[in-house]
């Protein structure tokens, strides 16, 4: 049996997650774990709140996610706090 092929949208979501993890490596080492936990929490939160077939919602979340990643990965942002 072969592996299941991913749709283009699924690949985009995984690419965003990988990009987030790579960008986190540019943050101070002592705060990287908080950024990683935040990214993971955001992706997990959206896994349960958006249906796999809701393409519009997923595309919207991807746009929001990219914008947020750009904001948080600014050199001026050195730490993150979340509840």
How would you characterize the overall build of this protein?
Keywords: Chaperone, Mitochondrion. Pfam families: Complex1_LYR. The protein has one domain. It has three helices and no strands. The longest helix has 18 residues. The model has no long low-confidence stretch (mean pLDDT 91). Helix content is 64%, strand content 0%. It is an all-alpha fold and 83 residues long. The N and C termini lie far apart (42 Å). Helix 1 packs antiparallel against helix 2 and helix 1 runs parallel beside helix 3.
Quick gist of this model?
The chain has 83 residues and is mainly alpha-helical. The protein has helices spanning 8-24, 32-49, 55-72. α1 (8-24) runs antiparallel to α2 and α1 (8-24) runs parallel beside α3.
């Amino acid at each position: 049996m072969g592996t299941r092929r991913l749709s283009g949208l699924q690949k985009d979501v995984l690419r965003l997650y990988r990009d987030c993890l790579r960008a986190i490596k540019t943050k101070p080492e002592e705060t990287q774990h908080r950024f990683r936990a935040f990214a993971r929490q955001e992706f997990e939160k959206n896994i349960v709140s958006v249906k796999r077939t809701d393409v519009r919602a997923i595309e919207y979340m991807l746009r929001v996610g990219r914008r947020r990643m750009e904001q948080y990965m600014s050199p001026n942002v050195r730490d993150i706090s979340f509840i």
